[in-house]
Structures are given as C-alpha cells and as structure tokens.
Amino acid sequence: MFELPPLPYDYDALEPAMSADTLRFHHDKHHKAYVDKTNKLAGDAGLEGRSLEDVVREAHKRGDKALFNNAAQAWNHAFFWNCMTPEKGQPGGALKEAIDKAFGSFDAFKTAFATEGAGHFGSGWVWLVTGSDGLKVISTHDADDTLVRDGLFPLLVCDVWEHAYYLDYQNDRPGFLKRWLEEIANWRFAEAQLAASEGKGDGFRYGAGASSHAQAGKTGSESQPTA
C-alpha cells in the first residue's frame, strides 16, 4: 500500500507565502484522499506491489481514468512538497546556466512560469521541465503529469488547483505564483533533478525513502527518479 509522505518541513515553515492552514488542508486532507483512493483502485486493478510511477503509467495505458486521476495526483503532490522550502534562494550552477540559455534570464523565466500558470484555464499544474530541446515551461490539466509524456523530465512544479492557494490568496493566482517563485520555490531540489536527468544521482521517486533534496525542518518526504 502507498503511504502519505510526510511534509519535508513543519506546517508553518513556509509562512507567510503559504500558511499552515493551507498545508494542513492540502496535505492532510486532499493529498491523503488521493493516496487512499489510489490504494483501493490499484488493488481493484490488480496492481498491488507496483511502484506509483508504474501505476500511473499503466492506468494511463489502460484508459482507467479514475485510477489515473488519483494515482497521478498522489504522485504530483508528493513531488510538489519537495518543490518548496523555507530557504529562500535562487538557482545556481548548471540550472542557472540552463535557465539563462532557455529563457534569457532568471527574471524572464519567472515571468514565463507565472504567465503560464496564471493563464492556465481551470485546475492543473505548471512545470519546469527538461528534455532534448532543453528547459521549457508547460502546464498540464487536472491530474495530468510528466510521467506519461515521453522525453520530459520534471525539475519543478507548482500546483494551480484552487485548493493550493485559495485560503491565502483567494482568486489571486498570479499573486500566489509570483510569491511562490520568489520566496519558497526549492531551487536546490530543481538543481538535483536537473543533475538526475543527466544521469548524475537519483531523481524523485515516490516512496523511495527520505528525500536527499528535502531541506529544513523535519525530513522524510518521498523522492527519487522519475522518467
């Protein structure tokens, strides 16, 4: 059975950019519900013992929308928790070079990321990914993620479902994205993901143990390779 991964920081560690109330509702209720439903549906589908990544891909292959939606959301949220940190910073090293090459500058990247997320109609996710063409920003609808998109490796994601920000920002999604990028985006995690995409170390994988990239406060979130 899949377990709900603990947050890699305390509930109040991301304040004021993200409140403890938001994290309690988002992690303890929304994420837990996805994990619980995935366990039931995966069992019904005969997929016990498979990794969550395998379950997501197999559900997509079979056209099992209920299982895909819940399993992908369970995975997306676990990845998302690792994409945040109380340690404010900016990308460095190879990630900074890749961002500058793809977008022209870090500021231009932030604009592209926030614009994509704010302009995404309805619920979904906004991602920084890498692939054969280098870095780019994409958004996915509802539970859709990078696990079922060939050639894409995720570096960073922000949740733009309303439950991710409504308690703190109401309908101001652009304000949420701007503050998220400037104050709590986890650039060290993104740097590690970029290295993993090039075969240097492990990337995020659900349920593989305590994250080597999670920072600050308590640790224990799920992490390691994805694509």
Please give a handful of descriptors for the protein shown.
single chain, 227 residues, mainly alpha, minor pseudopilin epsh fold, three-stranded antiparallel beta sheet, 3 strands, disordered C terminus
Please explain how this structure is put together.
The chain has 227 residues and is mainly alpha-helical. It has one domain: minor pseudopilin epsh fold (3-Layer(bab) Sandwich), CATH 3.55.40.20. It is 47% helix and 10% strand. A hairpin with a 2-residue loop joins strand 1 and strand 2. The C terminus is likely disordered.
At a glance:
By secondary structure, this protein is mainly α. It has helices at 20-44, 52-62, 65-82, 93-103, 106-119, 166-169, 173-184, 187-197; strands at 124-131, 134-141, 153-159. It has one domain: Iron/manganese superoxide dismutase, C-terminal domain (minor pseudopilin epsh fold).
Total of DSSP H or I helical runs spanning 4+ residues: 8
Strand content: 5-15%
CATH topology: minor pseudopilin epsh fold
Sheet with most strands:
3 strands, antiparallel
Number of strands: 3
| CATH top level assignment | Alpha Beta
Kindly name the structural category: mainly alpha
* Molecular shape: globular
Q: What's the order of the H and E elements?
A: HHHHHEEEHHH
Oligomer: single chain
CA-based gyration radius: 16 Å
Number of domains: 1
Average predicted local confidence, pLDDT = 92
Stretches with pLDDT under 50, minimum 5 residues: 209-227
The CATH architecture comes to 3-Layer(bab) Sandwich
CATH superfamily: Iron/manganese superoxide dismutase, C-terminal domain
Walk across the major sheet and give the strand order. 2-1-3
